[in-house]
TrEMBL record, chain A:
Organism of derivation: Eleutherodactylus coqui (Puerto Rican coqui)
Biological role stated in the UniProt entry: Has a role in nuclear-cytoplasmic transport of proteins and mRNAs.
Transmembrane segments: none
PROSITE patterns on file: NTF2_DOMAIN
GO biological process, one term: mRNA transport
CDD domains with a match to the protein in the record: NTF2 (cd00780)
Location (main, coarse): cytoplasm
SUPFAM superfamilies: NTF2-like (SSF54427)
Annotated Pfam families: NTF2
InterPro entries for this protein: NTF2, NTF2-like_dom_sf, NTF2_dom, Nuclear_transport_factor_2_euk
Name of protein: NTF2 domain-containing protein
Automatic annotation (TrEMBL), chain B:
Species for this entry: Eleutherodactylus coqui
Domain of life the protein comes from: Eukaryota
Principal cellular location given in the protein's record: cytoplasm
Alphabetical list of Gene3D superfamilies matching this protein: 3.10.450.50
Role description: Has a role in nuclear-cytoplasmic transport of proteins and mRNAs.
Keyword line: Cytoplasm, Nucleus, Protein transport, Transport
Annotated protein name in UniProt: NTF2-related export protein
Domain NTF2: 17-136
C-alpha cells in the first residue's frame, strides 16, 4: 500500500512537471532526458536529449487526444526519462 | 559511432522481439486463453483499466473471468530499455493500439503497454511480461 502511494506520487508529480514545462518552455525538458533516452513520436525514433528536445520543440499541434508513455529511472537521486512513446489518439474521432 | 550502431542493433532486436511477441500474445488471448499467463513472469503485474492484478494465481483467475475476445492490433511501437535502467536485464518497451470486442460487449479501442524481459535457459530464450498496462481508449465515453 505504501509502495503504491510512492510510485503513484512519483508518476503524478512527474506528469505535472513535464506538461508544465512542455507548455511553458520545452527547452527546460532537457534536464529529464539522458543521452541514452529514446523517444518514439508517431512512429519516428529519436535518441539522446538533444535530438529529443529538437523534436519536442518543433511540433506545435497538441489539440487532438493523445497517449504518452514515460519510463522513469532514478539516477543519482533524480528521476530521468529513459523511454517515451507518443501517439495521437486518432481511432475514436 | 559504435554507440549508435549498438543502439541500432538493440532497437532492431527490440522491434523483432516485440512484433513476434505481440502476434503471439493476441493470438493466445483470443484462441488459447488458458495458456496466456505462461507469457507473464511469476512476479508480473497487470493494470487493467486502472485495476492492479499481481502474480500468477490472480492473473489466472482474472483471465478466466474475462469474456472471450477478438483483438485487432493497428499499431506497435517498441524501444529497447537502456540497461542503465534495468541492471543489465534485456528489456523491451512495447506499446500497442487497436480495437477489441469482448463477448457481450461493444467494440472498444484500446492501448496496451508491455515491459518484456528476456529469460535465457540453456536450451532457449523467451520474452516474458514483467509489466502490462491495459486501457480502453474510449473508456470515458462508454
Amino acid at each position: 500500500m505504501c509502495d503504491k502511494r510512492i510510485w503513484e506520487q512519483i508518476g503524478a508529480s512527474f506528469v505535472e512537471h513535464y506538461y508544465r514545462l512542455f507548455d511553458c518552455d520545452r527547452t527546460q525538458l532537457k534536464a529529464i532526458y539522458t543521452d541514452a533516452s529514446c523517444l518514439t513520436w508517431e512512429g519516428d525514433q529519436f535518441q539522446g536529449k538533444d535530438a529529443i528536445i529538437e523534436k519536442l520543440s518543433a511540433d506545435d499541434d497538441q489539440i487532438l487526444g493523445f497517449q504518452q508513455i514515460f519510463l522513469l529511472k532514478c539516477c543519482n537521486g533524480a528521476w530521468v526519462c529513459t523511454n517515451e512513446v507518443f501517439r495521437l489518439a486518432l481511432h475514436n474521432l | 559511432m559504435a554507440v549508435t550502431q549498438d543502439f541500432r542493433t538493440d532497437a532492431d532486436l527490440a522491434c523483432r522481439a516485440a512484433e513476434e511477441f505481440v502476434s503471439l500474445y493476441y493470438e493466445t488471448i483470443d484462441k488459447r486463453r488458458r495458456q496466456l499467463t505462461k507469457l507473464y513472469m511469476d512476479t508480473a503485474t497487470l493494470v487493467w483499466n486502472g485495476n492492479p492484478i499481481s502474480g500468477q494465481n490472480a492473473l489466472i483467475e482474472f483471465f478466466e473471468m474475462l469474456p472471450s475476445s477478438e483483438f485487432s492490433v493497428n499499431m506497435i511501437d517498441c524501444q529497447p530499455v537502456h540497461e542503465m535502467a534495468t541492471q543489465g536485464q534485456k528489456t523491451v518497451l512495447v506499446v500497442t493500439n487497436g480495437s477489441v470486442k469482448f463477448d457481450g460487449n461493444k467494440h472498444h479501442y484500446f492501448n496496451q503497454i508491455f515491459l518484456l524481459t528476456l529469460h535465457t535457459t540453456p536450451s532457449n530464450s523467451v520474452w516474458k511480461i514483467a509489466s502490462d498496462c491495459f486501457r480502453f481508449q474510449d473508456w470515458a465515453n462508454s
